[in-house]
Amino acid sequence: MRTYLVTGTAGFIGFHLAEYLLARGHRVVGLDVVNDYYSVQLKEDRLARLEAREGFRNYRVELADTAAVADIFDRHQFDRVVHLAAQAGVRYSLENPHAYAQSNLVGFLNILEGCRHHQVPHLTYASSSSVYGANTTMPFSVHQNVDHPLSLYAATKKSNELMAHTYSHLYGLPTTGLRFFTVYGPWGRPDMALFLFTKAILAGEPIQVFNEGRMRRDFTYIDDIVEGVFRTAEQIATPNPEWSSAAPDPGSSAVPYRIYNIGNNNPVELGDFIQAIERAIGKPAKKELLPMQPGDVPATYADIEALEQAVGFRPRTSIEHGVEQFVRWYREYYGV
Prior knowledge:
alpha/beta; 7-stranded parallel sheet; 13 strands
């Protein structure tokens, strides 16, 4: 039995990870302020499920509140820290840039400091496929340079990877960053495509299809993500003995620092994804075709070889099954 600190426990991935850990007998300390970026009720309902479980305790504090975060580390001895809390969303970062600086930069610094001063054995944290930005070589590999982000959100996630490396170098803190690729599934975020499309189709309203449906995404089911996160957290990051400063590998280091993609390794065109939703609902969508939005990228596709070699895992859930599971949850949760 371990004690995990999971930040973002009222969020989509954090909630599912906490359930996964509790089901396996681990203790989970959660941190989530429950902001109003999207439905507070959905977040409260997620937390209510967790709070009904033995072994769970949640703190409602801001990540950027240095004293409050330090107090949580003082109160507990964590075997693992999984940092999933962040201000999410590419488009929202165009309108509210300061929210990203506070949550994603100051907040992450507070987590790093807590891990450093309390000798946490391993910090695993959420990065994002958005860090690949202007890259066009597919599939995206952790061995590629990622210095050309296309949104402030992506820039903060890249910054997290740089900050983590600094702490791995200066203090020997083992850190592993996971670049998530378009996560979906039950209890998902209302600002994501699957949620928005399902809601609109069931209501008989048109859906907004950006880039006229020609975008490709490496949609990854939540159960696959959670198992990958758990396996990675349990395997403490180590230095790469073959790392060379003359030809530096961006995905590893001479210090205990690792970066992995965690995606389905099977990109799906948005139009095909919509068809899977239509089949699961049993109703056609009314489509409003629109151009690409600022900050978006035309395609994502994860090379997961490094993850598979490290922890022996690759996602297995098909789009059809994953979408069906989400639609079933949505109908039940909203009584549609």
